[in-house]
Amino acid sequence: MADYTPRLKQRYRDELVPRIQKEMGYGNVMQVPRLEKIVVNMGVGDAIKDGRMLEAALADLTVITGQKPVVTKARKSIAGFKLREGQEIGAKVTLRGDYMWEFLDRLLALALPRIRDFRGLNPDAFDGSGNYTMGVTEQLIFPEVDYDKVSKVRGMDITIVNTARNDDEGRALLVALGFPLVGTTPSVAAAS
């Protein structure tokens, strides 16, 4: 098991790095953008009234990512939302290494095609530094989640953090990996 390499990571190393280097005109292979981490964040506003909602969200995130989530707490009190500072209101998971590559592979190959009326991802959701954030409206798109055990349909934010210096480099990396961004043509290698 020690010599196992996720298939998307292997494809990135063998096919995509040389191709991106050639397309973008990098002189050194170390200039090619690479993934650093993926952060999956699930806000649970219902946890203010019912603590079991947070436990269900933690269980869903654990099943989806294969890693134990961290509980996030409110930074400041907001009277209009009946929210107190330090109250538990969400969960997040930071994926790195092989866990990150496996999650990304499942997201692209299994989860995104299961979204109803899916027409592609927003190509403008970059932050200026090449990082990409997408929102998912329901956790049921992941096949690991048991539909019968879901207490409430909940959305999540998925942020892909990479070493790109700008949005164009980040977009080139994500399109090469197979992200179905609207208005971009998928690469030949991503389709295979």
Description:
The structure is a single chain. It is built from 5 helices and 5 strands. It has helices at residues 7-24, 51-65, 97-111, 167-177, 188-191; strands spanning 35-43, 70-73, 88-95, 132-136, 156-162. It has a 5-stranded antiparallel β-sheet with strand order 2-3-1-5-4. Helix 1 (7-24) crosses helix 4.
- Mean pLDDT across the residues is 83
Rg of Cα set: 18 Å
Query: Number of DSSP strands?
Result: 5
Task: Detail the poorly predicted runs.
Answer: 187-192
Helix content: 25-40%
N-to-C span: 26 Å
Number of helices: 5
Spell the H/E element sequence: HEHEEHEEHH
Question: What's the structural blueprint in terms of helices and strands?
Answer:
Elements: H1 7-24, E1 35-43, H2 51-65, E2 70-73, E3 88-95, H3 97-111, E4 132-136, E5 156-162, H4 167-177, H5 188-191
Antiparallel strand pairs: 1-3, 1-5, 2-3, 4-5
Helix pairs in contact: 1-4
Which features would summarize this protein structure in a list?
disordered C terminus, 5 helices, 5 strands, 192 residues, alpha+beta
Gist of the model:
The chain is α+β, with helices and mostly antiparallel strands and 192 residues long. The protein has helices at residues 7-24, 51-65, 97-111, 167-177, 188-191; strands at residues 35-43, 70-73, 88-95, 132-136, 156-162.
